[in-house]
Amino acid sequence: MASKPKTYQDLMEEARKYGVNNNALFVQAAEQYSMQFAVIQQIKKTLQRDKNLITSKEYVKGRENVCAHPLIRELPKHVDSANKTLGVMLEILTKLGKPSAPEGKLAELMKDD
Q1: pLDDT tens sequence across 30-61
Q2: Residue 20 burial by CB count (10 A; 0-12/13-18/19+): exposed, middle or buried?
Q3: What's the rounded Cα separation, in Å, for the pair 20 and 64?
Q4: How far is CA 24 from CA 12, 31, 96, 106, in A?
Q5: How far apart are alpha carbons 30 and 90 in whole angstroms?
């Protein structure tokens, strides 16, 4: 089962854990990914709503040509672009960030108060 998609806030929370939440490159990449994700979701909604994935175009002399819905061709391009953006974000996290140190038992006990 696929995991829940990451929102902009989720991405920035991960960035905070790695100490790159103020990195301009990461922030810009997260904003870009958020926009790409919204476009992908809109394309999927449109394709599900239309249900007819085949369309026809009329060319010269009234001849009709049957072809696939134009969004079918666009979806993989946007998904690929979003994947590349996530790759950039992962690279920034691993090269410029450091995971926060795990908290000890004392810190956990102090939180409970």
Answers
A1: 999 999 999 999 999 998 888 778 888 777 77
A2: buried
A3: 54
A4: 12, 11, 12, 34
A5: 11
Take residue 61 and report the two structure tokens written for it.
């002399």
Non-local CB neighbours of 19 within 8 Å, separated by 6+ positions: 97, 98, 100
Tokens 């920035």 belong to residue: 12
Supply the pTM of this predicted model. Answer: 0.73
For the segment 83-104, what is each residue's pLDDT rounded down to a tens digit? 999 999 999 988 988 877 666 6
Count of H-run helices and E-run strands, the chain: 4, 2
SS3 content of the chain, % helix, strand, coil (to 5): 65, 10, 25
Judge whether 93 and 15 are in contact, CB under 8 Å: yes
| Beta pairing partners, 77 | none
